[in-house]
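Practice problem: Tetraspanin
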Amino acid sequence: MEGDCLSCMKYLMFLFNFFIFLGGACLLGLGIWVIVDPTGFREIVAANPLLFTGAYIMLAMGAMLFLLGFLGCCGAIRENKCLLLFFFMFILLIFLAELSAAILAFIFRENLTREFFTKELKKHYQRNNDTDVFSATWNSVMITFACCGVNGPEDFEAIPHLPHSSSATPEACCQRELQSREGMFVNKEDCLKGNERFQNRQGCYTVILNSFETYVYLAGALAIGVLAIELFAMIFAMCLFRGIQ
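Answer key — structure tokens:
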């Protein structure tokens, strides 16, 4: 009976580690996509130190989970106590790091409010100054998502506009036939004169929130699932470690 129980534990351990292996592969792929994606996210990530650090942390965590899942599978199948102990210690460190990151994200979530982004935009935005990373990033976001400001064009009324333009709306808020920097303007002159027909009127905060709402819930569910799998994997690792003679 004890041998059957140990055998069952071994295959359960292998199964859980296989899921960790797949989760690590997904995180690794997502991290690579965020860093190299050509549709504007690369510029956003590079411009924000927090996002830049987060992307590489996600990449490193994915690679580590990928490796540990592989080692855990090998340790379970070969019944190697050294590999199992190594796996347990590292998966425990990863589990605690992920838990700490989730708690910190919850505590500092107020830094992602509409008011915070509006304040930062009005303080640092320099319109068509592409040498300024903050302004270039905002221009890329507004062009990519066909939006304007955080709440709408009114965010730019307090920001000095160009002498030849009677409108406070920046060029990046003008409608384009194709939403990219290479896309032709529908009517740039009328847009800069203040004609709302040729301006993107919706704020970027709402547009981006609606675009990523599904993915945020999916990422949250995936994170909870990964934490649960890691917890069970640690329990099985210890049970298997103690059961091996």
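Discussion: The chain has a mean pLDDT of 77. Students who identified this feature from the tokens alone can consider the problem solved.
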